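Usage

Read records sequentially. Each one opens with the input sequence:
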Amino acid sequence: MPTPEETLVRIDRAIRDAARARYGADVPSVTFEAPRRPEFGDFATNVAFGLAKAARSAPQQIAQRLIEDAILSRPEIAALVVEAQATAGFINLRLVPECWQRVVERALHEGARYGESPRNGTRISLEFGSANPTGPLVVVQGRALSIGATLAAAFESCGYDVFTEWIVNDAGGQVETLARSLYARYRQVADPSFPFPEEGYPGEYLLPIAAALRNEFGARYDDADESLWLPLFGTRGRDALVAEQQKTVERFGIHYDLWQSERELHETGKVRAGVERLRELGLTYENEGALYFRATQFGDDKDRVLVKSDGKPTYYCADVAYHYEKLKRADRVIDLLGPDHHGYIERLRGLASAFGYAGKLDVAIAQQVTLSRGGEQVAMSKRAGEIVTLDAILDEVGVDAARFFFAMLATDTPLAFDLQLATEQSNENPVYYVQYGHARIASVLRNADPDELRLARRGERLAPLAHASEIALMRRIEEYPRVLQTVVHTLSPHRLARYARDIAADFHAFYGECRILCDEREERLARLALAAATQHVLANALRVLGVGAPESMERLAAD
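and closes with the structure output:
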Protein backbone atom coordinates (compact mmCIF):
# COMPACT_ATOMS: atom_id res chain seq x y z
CA MET A 1 0.00 0.00 0.00
CA PRO A 2 1.44 3.41 -0.92
CA THR A 3 1.91 6.23 1.59
CA PRO A 4 -0.39 9.27 1.39
CA GLU A 5 2.34 11.16 -0.49
CA GLU A 6 2.76 8.35 -3.00
CA THR A 7 -1.01 8.07 -3.34
CA LEU A 8 -1.32 11.76 -4.20
CA VAL A 9 1.38 11.38 -6.85
CA ARG A 10 -0.70 8.64 -8.51
CA ILE A 11 -3.90 10.69 -8.28
CA ASP A 12 -2.09 13.72 -9.67
CA ARG A 13 -0.99 11.73 -12.70
CA ALA A 14 -4.48 10.26 -13.18
CA ILE A 15 -6.17 13.68 -13.03
CA ARG A 16 -3.73 15.19 -15.52
CA ASP A 17 -4.29 12.25 -17.89
CA ALA A 18 -8.06 12.66 -17.55
CA ALA A 19 -7.89 16.42 -18.16
CA ARG A 20 -5.83 15.89 -21.31
CA ALA A 21 -8.12 13.15 -22.60
CA ARG A 22 -11.44 14.91 -21.94
CA TYR A 23 -10.54 18.59 -22.45
CA GLY A 24 -7.29 18.54 -24.39
CA ALA A 25 -5.77 20.63 -21.61
CA ASP A 26 -2.34 20.17 -20.09
CA VAL A 27 -2.22 20.55 -16.31
CA PRO A 28 1.40 21.01 -15.10
CA SER A 29 0.66 19.52 -11.68
CA VAL A 30 -2.19 19.16 -9.24
CA THR A 31 -1.93 20.89 -5.89
CA PHE A 32 -3.47 19.12 -2.92
CA GLU A 33 -4.14 20.80 0.41
CA ALA A 34 -5.70 19.61 3.65
CA PRO A 35 -9.18 21.18 4.05
CA ARG A 36 -9.71 23.29 7.14
CA ARG A 37 -12.73 21.20 8.10
CA PRO A 38 -12.19 17.42 8.48
CA GLU A 39 -15.62 16.58 7.12
CA PHE A 40 -14.34 17.63 3.69
CA GLY A 41 -11.84 14.78 3.68
CA ASP A 42 -8.09 14.39 3.87
CA PHE A 43 -7.12 16.43 0.82
CA ALA A 44 -8.72 18.82 -1.64
CA THR A 45 -7.70 20.32 -4.98
CA ASN A 46 -9.02 23.27 -6.97
CA VAL A 47 -7.68 21.94 -10.29
CA ALA A 48 -11.17 22.23 -11.85
CA PHE A 49 -11.10 26.03 -11.57
CA GLY A 50 -7.98 26.21 -13.71
CA LEU A 51 -9.66 24.12 -16.40
CA ALA A 52 -12.89 26.11 -16.56
CA LYS A 53 -11.85 28.31 -19.48
CA ALA A 54 -10.51 25.48 -21.66
CA ALA A 55 -13.44 23.18 -20.81
CA ARG A 56 -16.08 25.91 -21.12
CA SER A 57 -17.79 24.38 -18.15
CA ALA A 58 -18.49 25.21 -14.52
CA PRO A 59 -15.81 24.00 -12.06
CA GLN A 60 -18.37 21.82 -10.27
CA GLN A 61 -19.14 19.87 -13.45
CA ILE A 62 -15.45 19.57 -14.32
CA ALA A 63 -14.63 18.30 -10.80
CA GLN A 64 -17.33 15.64 -11.04
CA ARG A 65 -16.13 14.44 -14.45
CA LEU A 66 -12.50 14.30 -13.30
CA ILE A 67 -13.56 12.16 -10.33
CA GLU A 68 -15.35 9.77 -12.69
CA ASP A 69 -12.51 9.62 -15.23
CA ALA A 70 -9.47 9.68 -12.96
CA ILE A 71 -10.69 7.79 -9.89
CA LEU A 72 -13.95 5.86 -10.16
CA SER A 73 -13.22 4.34 -13.56
CA ARG A 74 -9.66 3.32 -12.61
CA PRO A 75 -9.70 0.44 -10.10
CA GLU A 76 -6.06 0.90 -9.12
CA ILE A 77 -6.84 4.49 -8.06
CA ALA A 78 -10.30 3.81 -6.65
CA ALA A 79 -8.73 1.23 -4.32
CA LEU A 80 -6.77 4.03 -2.62
CA VAL A 81 -9.75 6.30 -1.99
CA VAL A 82 -12.58 5.82 0.48
CA GLU A 83 -14.50 8.81 -0.80
CA ALA A 84 -14.18 11.33 -3.66
CA GLN A 85 -16.65 14.20 -3.86
CA ALA A 86 -17.06 17.33 -5.94
CA THR A 87 -17.97 20.19 -3.63
CA ALA A 88 -18.31 23.77 -4.89
CA GLY A 89 -15.84 23.02 -7.66
CA PHE A 90 -13.27 21.36 -5.40
CA ILE A 91 -12.34 17.68 -5.51
CA ASN A 92 -12.35 16.37 -1.94
CA LEU A 93 -10.62 13.06 -1.24
CA ARG A 94 -10.56 10.72 1.70
CA LEU A 95 -7.83 8.08 1.53
CA VAL A 96 -8.13 4.50 2.76
CA PRO A 97 -6.82 3.93 6.32
CA GLU A 98 -4.05 1.66 5.01
CA CYS A 99 -2.31 4.70 3.47
CA TRP A 100 -2.21 6.44 6.83
CA GLN A 101 -1.05 3.28 8.56
CA ARG A 102 2.07 3.42 6.41
CA VAL A 103 2.89 6.72 8.13
CA VAL A 104 2.85 5.02 11.53
CA GLU A 105 5.08 2.28 10.19
CA ARG A 106 7.60 4.83 8.92
CA ALA A 107 7.59 6.88 12.13
CA LEU A 108 8.22 3.75 14.18
CA HIS A 109 11.07 2.57 11.97
CA GLU A 110 12.78 5.97 11.80
CA GLY A 111 12.17 6.96 15.42
CA ALA A 112 14.34 9.94 16.40
CA ARG A 113 15.24 10.40 12.71
CA TYR A 114 11.64 10.80 11.56
CA GLY A 115 11.25 14.09 9.74
CA GLU A 116 14.96 14.48 9.06
CA SER A 117 16.45 14.90 5.59
CA PRO A 118 19.80 13.70 4.18
CA ARG A 119 22.73 16.12 4.32
CA ASN A 120 22.54 18.50 1.36
CA GLY A 121 25.91 20.22 1.68
CA THR A 122 24.41 23.70 1.99
CA ARG A 123 26.17 25.91 4.55
CA ILE A 124 24.05 28.25 6.67
CA SER A 125 25.46 31.15 8.68
CA LEU A 126 22.93 32.02 11.39
CA GLU A 127 23.45 35.02 13.67
CA PHE A 128 20.95 35.54 16.49
CA GLY A 129 20.69 36.87 20.02
CA SER A 130 23.62 39.28 19.68
CA ALA A 131 23.52 41.94 22.38
CA ASN A 132 25.66 44.89 23.40
CA PRO A 133 28.21 43.78 26.03
CA THR A 134 26.90 46.37 28.45
CA GLY A 135 24.59 44.38 30.69
CA PRO A 136 22.95 41.02 31.36
CA LEU A 137 20.70 39.42 28.78
CA VAL A 138 17.06 40.47 29.00
CA VAL A 139 13.77 39.13 27.70
CA VAL A 140 14.07 40.42 24.12
CA GLN A 141 17.34 38.50 23.78
CA GLY A 142 15.58 35.49 25.29
CA ARG A 143 13.09 35.54 22.46
CA ALA A 144 15.81 35.90 19.82
CA LEU A 145 17.79 33.08 21.43
CA SER A 146 14.81 30.73 21.43
CA ILE A 147 13.82 31.57 17.86
CA GLY A 148 17.38 31.34 16.55
CA ALA A 149 18.20 28.08 18.30
CA THR A 150 14.97 26.51 17.01
CA LEU A 151 15.82 27.63 13.49
CA ALA A 152 19.33 26.21 13.82
CA ALA A 153 18.00 22.83 14.98
CA ALA A 154 15.35 22.78 12.24
CA PHE A 155 17.93 23.54 9.54
CA GLU A 156 20.15 20.76 10.91
CA SER A 157 17.21 18.35 10.86
CA CYS A 158 16.54 19.29 7.24
CA GLY A 159 20.08 18.41 6.17
CA TYR A 160 21.85 21.79 6.29
CA ASP A 161 25.23 22.52 7.87
CA VAL A 162 24.60 25.34 10.33
CA PHE A 163 27.20 27.70 11.77
CA THR A 164 25.81 29.81 14.64
CA GLU A 165 27.29 33.21 15.42
CA TRP A 166 27.06 36.00 17.99
CA ILE A 167 28.54 39.43 17.29
CA VAL A 168 29.93 41.24 20.34
CA ASN A 169 29.43 44.97 19.61
CA ASP A 170 32.52 46.08 21.51
CA ALA A 171 33.95 48.70 19.17
CA GLY A 172 31.44 51.53 19.57
CA GLY A 173 30.70 54.29 22.03
CA GLN A 174 28.60 51.99 24.23
CA VAL A 175 31.76 50.36 25.60
CA GLU A 176 33.11 53.79 26.60
CA THR A 177 29.78 54.49 28.31
CA LEU A 178 30.14 51.15 30.07
CA ALA A 179 33.67 52.07 31.16
CA ARG A 180 32.53 55.38 32.67
CA SER A 181 29.59 53.68 34.39
CA LEU A 182 31.85 51.01 35.84
CA TYR A 183 34.42 53.60 36.91
CA ALA A 184 31.72 55.53 38.77
CA ARG A 185 30.69 52.35 40.60
CA TYR A 186 34.36 51.66 41.36
CA ARG A 187 34.75 55.12 42.89
CA GLN A 188 31.46 54.79 44.80
CA VAL A 189 32.79 51.76 46.67
CA ALA A 190 34.97 54.21 48.63
CA ASP A 191 32.97 57.40 48.05
CA PRO A 192 29.19 56.88 47.71
CA SER A 193 28.77 60.52 46.73
CA PHE A 194 30.85 60.16 43.57
CA PRO A 195 28.60 61.25 40.65
CA PHE A 196 27.20 58.71 38.22
CA PRO A 197 27.22 59.72 34.51
CA GLU A 198 23.82 60.87 33.24
CA GLU A 199 23.98 58.58 30.19
CA GLY A 200 25.48 55.66 32.11
CA TYR A 201 24.13 52.16 32.74
CA PRO A 202 22.60 52.35 36.24
CA GLY A 203 21.79 48.68 36.79
CA GLU A 204 23.06 46.95 39.91
CA TYR A 205 24.80 44.32 37.77
CA LEU A 206 27.91 46.56 37.67
CA LEU A 207 28.33 46.56 41.46
CA PRO A 208 30.10 43.17 41.84
CA ILE A 209 32.41 43.96 38.91
CA ALA A 210 33.26 47.32 40.47
CA ALA A 211 33.86 45.69 43.86
CA ALA A 212 36.24 43.20 42.26
CA LEU A 213 38.16 46.03 40.57
CA ARG A 214 38.35 47.93 43.86
CA ASN A 215 39.67 44.85 45.56
CA GLU A 216 42.29 44.38 42.82
CA PHE A 217 43.44 47.97 42.29
CA GLY A 218 42.49 49.75 45.50
CA ALA A 219 42.64 53.52 45.00
CA ARG A 220 45.13 53.35 42.10
CA TYR A 221 42.75 54.94 39.59
CA ASP A 222 40.96 57.38 41.91
CA ASP A 223 42.93 60.37 40.66
CA ALA A 224 44.24 58.90 37.40
CA ASP A 225 43.72 60.52 34.05
CA GLU A 226 40.78 59.13 32.04
CA SER A 227 43.14 57.93 29.31
CA LEU A 228 44.65 55.49 31.83
CA TRP A 229 41.48 53.90 33.18
CA LEU A 230 38.98 54.20 30.30
CA PRO A 231 40.33 51.35 28.09
CA LEU A 232 41.00 49.14 31.11
CA PHE A 233 37.55 49.54 32.63
CA GLY A 234 35.92 49.15 29.23
CA THR A 235 37.73 45.88 28.56
CA ARG A 236 37.20 44.51 32.07
CA GLY A 237 33.52 45.42 32.00
CA ARG A 238 33.04 43.94 28.55
CA ASP A 239 34.82 40.69 29.44
CA ALA A 240 32.89 40.22 32.68
CA LEU A 241 29.52 40.93 31.08
CA VAL A 242 30.16 38.79 27.99
CA ALA A 243 31.18 35.93 30.30
CA GLU A 244 27.88 36.33 32.16
CA GLN A 245 25.98 36.42 28.86
CA GLN A 246 27.70 33.22 27.79
CA LYS A 247 26.74 31.51 31.05
CA THR A 248 23.11 32.52 30.53
CA VAL A 249 23.16 31.27 26.94
CA GLU A 250 24.58 27.92 28.06
CA ARG A 251 21.96 27.69 30.80
CA PHE A 252 19.35 28.27 28.11
CA GLY A 253 20.65 25.17 26.34
CA ILE A 254 22.24 26.98 23.39
CA HIS A 255 25.71 26.61 21.88
CA TYR A 256 27.42 29.07 19.54
CA ASP A 257 30.14 28.14 17.08
CA LEU A 258 31.56 31.68 17.16
CA TRP A 259 31.46 34.69 19.47
CA GLN A 260 32.78 37.35 17.09
CA SER A 261 34.29 40.49 18.60
CA GLU A 262 33.64 43.61 16.54
CA ARG A 263 36.86 45.07 17.92
CA GLU A 264 38.73 42.04 16.58
CA LEU A 265 37.38 42.74 13.10
CA HIS A 266 39.06 46.14 13.24
CA GLU A 267 42.31 44.90 14.80
CA THR A 268 42.84 42.09 12.27
CA GLY A 269 42.25 44.27 9.23
CA LYS A 270 38.98 42.62 8.20
CA VAL A 271 37.13 45.91 8.30
CA ARG A 272 39.74 47.46 6.03
CA ALA A 273 39.52 44.46 3.68
CA GLY A 274 35.74 44.82 3.37
CA VAL A 275 36.02 48.51 2.53
CA GLU A 276 38.79 47.84 0.01
CA ARG A 277 36.62 45.27 -1.71
CA LEU A 278 33.89 47.87 -2.18
CA ARG A 279 36.51 50.27 -3.55
CA GLU A 280 37.64 47.65 -6.06
CA LEU A 281 34.04 47.22 -7.19
CA GLY A 282 33.73 50.96 -7.76
CA LEU A 283 31.05 51.29 -5.10
CA THR A 284 32.59 54.00 -2.90
CA TYR A 285 33.16 57.72 -3.23
CA GLU A 286 34.46 60.55 -1.06
CA ASN A 287 32.49 63.61 -0.01
CA GLU A 288 33.78 66.31 2.36
CA GLY A 289 36.49 64.00 3.61
CA ALA A 290 34.18 61.07 4.38
CA LEU A 291 34.03 57.77 2.48
CA TYR A 292 30.58 56.66 1.30
CA PHE A 293 29.16 53.35 0.03
CA ARG A 294 26.81 53.72 -2.96
CA ALA A 295 23.99 52.01 -1.08
CA THR A 296 21.22 53.63 -3.13
CA GLN A 297 22.28 51.52 -6.11
CA PHE A 298 21.06 48.51 -4.11
CA GLY A 299 17.71 49.70 -2.78
CA ASP A 300 18.77 51.72 0.28
CA ASP A 301 17.18 55.13 0.85
CA LYS A 302 20.55 56.88 1.03
CA ASP A 303 24.25 56.25 0.58
CA ARG A 304 25.98 55.14 3.77
CA VAL A 305 29.07 56.57 5.42
CA LEU A 306 31.81 54.00 5.87
CA VAL A 307 34.61 56.19 7.22
CA LYS A 308 33.92 59.60 8.77
CA SER A 309 35.88 62.72 7.90
CA ASP A 310 37.98 62.25 11.06
CA GLY A 311 39.13 58.85 9.74
CA LYS A 312 37.07 56.78 12.18
CA PRO A 313 35.02 53.91 10.73
CA THR A 314 31.28 53.91 11.36
CA TYR A 315 29.31 51.10 12.95
CA TYR A 316 28.00 50.29 9.48
CA CYS A 317 31.58 49.85 8.33
CA ALA A 318 31.98 46.95 10.76
CA ASP A 319 28.72 45.50 9.39
CA VAL A 320 30.29 45.60 5.93
CA ALA A 321 33.31 43.60 7.09
CA TYR A 322 31.36 41.12 9.19
CA HIS A 323 28.88 40.31 6.44
CA TYR A 324 31.59 40.14 3.80
CA GLU A 325 33.28 37.44 5.89
CA LYS A 326 30.02 35.53 6.38
CA LEU A 327 28.98 35.73 2.74
CA LYS A 328 32.34 34.35 1.60
CA ARG A 329 32.11 31.21 3.74
CA ALA A 330 28.39 30.38 3.68
CA ASP A 331 25.85 29.54 0.99
CA ARG A 332 23.14 31.41 2.87
CA VAL A 333 23.41 34.05 5.59
CA ILE A 334 20.57 34.67 8.05
CA ASP A 335 20.49 37.53 10.56
CA LEU A 336 17.91 37.56 13.34
CA LEU A 337 17.80 41.14 14.60
CA GLY A 338 16.01 42.97 17.38
CA PRO A 339 12.79 45.00 17.14
CA ASP A 340 14.54 48.33 16.47
CA HIS A 341 16.39 47.13 13.36
CA HIS A 342 13.74 47.23 10.62
CA GLY A 343 15.79 49.78 8.71
CA TYR A 344 18.61 47.28 8.42
CA ILE A 345 16.74 44.76 6.29
CA GLU A 346 17.15 46.37 2.86
CA ARG A 347 20.48 47.85 3.91
CA LEU A 348 22.00 44.44 4.58
CA ARG A 349 20.39 42.79 1.56
CA GLY A 350 21.80 45.58 -0.59
CA LEU A 351 25.22 44.98 0.91
CA ALA A 352 25.04 41.32 -0.09
CA SER A 353 24.10 42.34 -3.63
CA ALA A 354 27.01 44.78 -3.76
CA PHE A 355 29.46 42.02 -2.91
CA GLY A 356 27.97 39.79 -5.61
CA TYR A 357 25.86 37.59 -3.36
CA ALA A 358 22.35 38.80 -4.25
CA GLY A 359 19.64 36.72 -2.62
CA LYS A 360 22.00 34.97 -0.21
CA LEU A 361 21.19 37.08 2.86
CA ASP A 362 17.91 36.98 4.78
CA VAL A 363 16.96 39.19 7.71
CA ALA A 364 14.25 38.42 10.25
CA ILE A 365 13.12 40.67 13.09
CA ALA A 366 12.33 39.29 16.55
CA GLN A 367 9.62 41.63 17.78
CA GLN A 368 9.31 43.12 21.25
CA VAL A 369 8.31 41.20 24.38
CA THR A 370 6.12 42.48 27.20
CA LEU A 371 5.89 40.68 30.52
CA SER A 372 2.89 40.30 32.78
CA ARG A 373 2.16 38.45 35.97
CA GLY A 374 -1.35 37.96 37.30
CA GLY A 375 -2.74 40.51 34.86
CA GLU A 376 -0.25 43.21 35.85
CA GLN A 377 2.44 44.34 33.43
CA VAL A 378 6.03 44.01 34.60
CA ALA A 379 8.01 47.23 34.11
CA MET A 380 11.20 47.01 32.08
CA SER A 381 13.64 49.88 31.38
CA LYS A 382 17.33 49.22 30.87
CA ARG A 383 18.20 52.92 30.93
CA ALA A 384 16.37 53.39 34.26
CA GLY A 385 17.98 50.27 35.66
CA GLU A 386 14.61 48.48 35.90
CA ILE A 387 15.58 45.42 33.90
CA VAL A 388 14.17 41.93 34.06
CA THR A 389 17.03 39.62 33.18
CA LEU A 390 16.68 36.43 31.22
CA ASP A 391 18.15 34.58 34.18
CA ALA A 392 15.34 35.90 36.37
CA ILE A 393 12.81 34.60 33.84
CA LEU A 394 14.50 31.19 33.85
CA ASP A 395 14.50 31.16 37.65
CA GLU A 396 10.76 31.80 37.68
CA VAL A 397 9.39 29.68 34.83
CA GLY A 398 12.25 27.31 33.88
CA VAL A 399 14.09 26.74 30.62
CA ASP A 400 11.40 24.60 28.97
CA ALA A 401 8.58 27.10 29.42
CA ALA A 402 10.77 30.03 28.38
CA ARG A 403 12.02 28.30 25.23
CA PHE A 404 8.47 27.36 24.20
CA PHE A 405 6.78 30.67 25.05
CA PHE A 406 9.45 32.75 23.31
CA ALA A 407 9.07 30.71 20.10
CA MET A 408 5.33 30.15 19.96
CA LEU A 409 4.27 33.31 18.07
CA ALA A 410 5.35 34.51 14.64
CA THR A 411 8.72 36.22 14.84
CA ASP A 412 7.37 39.54 13.56
CA THR A 413 4.49 39.55 16.08
CA PRO A 414 4.91 41.21 19.50
CA LEU A 415 4.83 38.66 22.29
CA ALA A 416 2.95 39.08 25.56
CA PHE A 417 4.63 36.66 27.97
CA ASP A 418 2.40 35.70 30.91
CA LEU A 419 4.79 34.52 33.61
CA GLN A 420 1.97 33.21 35.76
CA LEU A 421 0.50 31.13 32.93
CA ALA A 422 3.95 29.69 32.14
CA THR A 423 4.10 28.09 35.59
CA GLU A 424 0.57 26.71 35.70
CA GLN A 425 -0.01 22.97 35.52
CA SER A 426 -3.08 23.23 33.33
CA ASN A 427 -4.19 22.77 29.74
CA GLU A 428 -4.12 26.56 29.37
CA ASN A 429 -0.33 26.48 29.63
CA PRO A 430 0.78 25.37 26.14
CA VAL A 431 4.16 23.93 27.11
CA TYR A 432 2.64 21.99 29.99
CA TYR A 433 -0.10 20.72 27.69
CA VAL A 434 2.43 19.46 25.13
CA GLN A 435 4.78 17.92 27.70
CA TYR A 436 1.82 16.30 29.42
CA GLY A 437 0.97 14.64 26.10
CA HIS A 438 4.42 13.08 25.91
CA ALA A 439 4.30 11.99 29.56
CA ARG A 440 0.83 10.49 29.11
CA ILE A 441 2.09 8.36 26.22
CA ALA A 442 5.07 7.26 28.30
CA SER A 443 2.71 6.25 31.11
CA VAL A 444 0.59 4.16 28.74
CA LEU A 445 3.63 2.41 27.31
CA ARG A 446 4.99 1.68 30.80
CA ASN A 447 1.71 -0.05 31.65
CA ALA A 448 1.71 -2.17 28.49
CA ASP A 449 2.95 -5.74 28.38
CA PRO A 450 6.66 -5.48 27.41
CA ASP A 451 6.42 -8.28 24.84
CA GLU A 452 3.35 -6.74 23.24
CA LEU A 453 5.00 -3.34 23.19
CA ARG A 454 8.04 -4.76 21.40
CA LEU A 455 5.74 -6.37 18.85
CA ALA A 456 3.72 -3.17 18.45
CA ARG A 457 6.87 -1.10 17.82
CA ARG A 458 7.59 -3.22 14.74
CA GLY A 459 4.62 -1.59 13.04
CA GLU A 460 3.31 -4.79 11.50
CA ARG A 461 -0.14 -4.99 13.15
CA LEU A 462 -1.81 -1.72 12.17
CA ALA A 463 -4.95 -2.87 10.29
CA PRO A 464 -7.44 -1.98 13.09
CA LEU A 465 -6.51 1.73 12.94
CA ALA A 466 -9.59 3.23 11.26
CA HIS A 467 -11.38 5.27 13.93
CA ALA A 468 -11.79 8.98 13.11
CA SER A 469 -9.50 10.04 15.98
CA GLU A 470 -6.91 7.48 14.89
CA ILE A 471 -7.00 8.78 11.32
CA ALA A 472 -6.68 12.36 12.60
CA LEU A 473 -3.61 11.47 14.65
CA MET A 474 -1.99 9.58 11.77
CA ARG A 475 -2.63 12.55 9.49
CA ARG A 476 -0.89 14.80 12.01
CA ILE A 477 2.12 12.50 12.19
CA GLU A 478 2.37 12.60 8.40
CA GLU A 479 2.58 16.42 8.49
CA TYR A 480 5.74 16.61 10.61
CA PRO A 481 8.41 16.46 7.86
CA ARG A 482 6.59 19.17 5.90
CA VAL A 483 6.27 21.35 8.99
CA LEU A 484 10.03 21.19 9.49
CA GLN A 485 10.62 22.15 5.86
CA THR A 486 8.18 25.05 6.19
CA VAL A 487 9.98 26.29 9.29
CA VAL A 488 13.31 26.56 7.44
CA HIS A 489 11.88 27.91 4.19
CA THR A 490 9.86 30.68 5.88
CA LEU A 491 12.01 31.22 9.01
CA SER A 492 8.91 30.52 11.09
CA PRO A 493 9.70 28.43 14.20
CA HIS A 494 6.28 29.26 15.65
CA ARG A 495 4.84 26.77 13.16
CA LEU A 496 6.67 23.99 14.97
CA ALA A 497 5.40 25.15 18.36
CA ARG A 498 1.87 25.21 16.95
CA TYR A 499 2.38 21.75 15.46
CA ALA A 500 3.51 20.41 18.85
CA ARG A 501 0.29 21.69 20.41
CA ASP A 502 -1.77 20.25 17.56
CA ILE A 503 -0.32 16.76 17.76
CA ALA A 504 -0.64 16.79 21.56
CA ALA A 505 -4.31 17.78 21.16
CA ASP A 506 -4.87 15.01 18.61
CA PHE A 507 -3.31 12.48 20.94
CA HIS A 508 -5.40 13.64 23.91
CA ALA A 509 -8.52 13.29 21.72
CA PHE A 510 -7.46 9.81 20.59
CA TYR A 511 -6.72 8.83 24.21
CA GLY A 512 -10.19 9.98 25.27
CA GLU A 513 -12.06 8.23 22.44
CA CYS A 514 -10.07 5.01 21.96
CA ARG A 515 -8.97 2.90 24.90
CA ILE A 516 -5.38 1.99 24.08
CA LEU A 517 -4.94 -0.94 26.48
CA CYS A 518 -8.24 -2.46 25.42
CA ASP A 519 -9.32 -6.11 25.66
CA GLU A 520 -9.03 -7.02 21.98
CA ARG A 521 -5.38 -7.92 21.28
CA GLU A 522 -5.05 -6.81 17.65
CA GLU A 523 -6.68 -3.49 18.40
CA ARG A 524 -4.43 -3.08 21.46
CA LEU A 525 -1.28 -3.75 19.44
CA ALA A 526 -2.30 -1.27 16.74
CA ARG A 527 -3.08 1.48 19.24
CA LEU A 528 0.15 0.88 21.13
CA ALA A 529 1.98 1.29 17.82
CA LEU A 530 0.16 4.55 17.14
CA ALA A 531 0.95 5.84 20.63
CA ALA A 532 4.63 4.91 20.28
CA ALA A 533 4.85 6.60 16.86
CA THR A 534 3.23 9.74 18.29
CA GLN A 535 5.73 9.75 21.14
CA HIS A 536 8.62 9.72 18.65
CA VAL A 537 7.21 12.64 16.69
CA LEU A 538 6.32 14.70 19.75
CA ALA A 539 9.78 14.13 21.23
CA ASN A 540 11.39 15.10 17.92
CA ALA A 541 9.42 18.35 17.75
CA LEU A 542 10.23 19.22 21.37
CA ARG A 543 13.91 18.50 20.80
CA VAL A 544 14.05 20.94 17.89
CA LEU A 545 12.26 23.52 20.06
CA GLY A 546 14.83 22.96 22.81
CA VAL A 547 12.17 21.72 25.22
CA GLY A 548 12.36 18.60 27.36
CA ALA A 549 10.14 15.59 26.72
CA PRO A 550 9.34 14.27 30.23
CA GLU A 551 8.49 10.65 30.88
CA SER A 552 6.27 11.53 33.85
CA MET A 553 4.48 14.53 35.37
CA GLU A 554 2.72 15.07 38.68
CA ARG A 555 -0.75 15.41 37.18
CA LEU A 556 -0.64 11.85 35.82
CA ALA A 557 -1.06 10.49 39.33
CA ALA A 558 -4.60 11.86 39.38
CA ASP A 559 -5.37 11.25 35.69
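Summary fields computed downstream for this record:
- Residues 75 and 81 are 10 Å apart (CA to CA).
- The mean pLDDT is 94.
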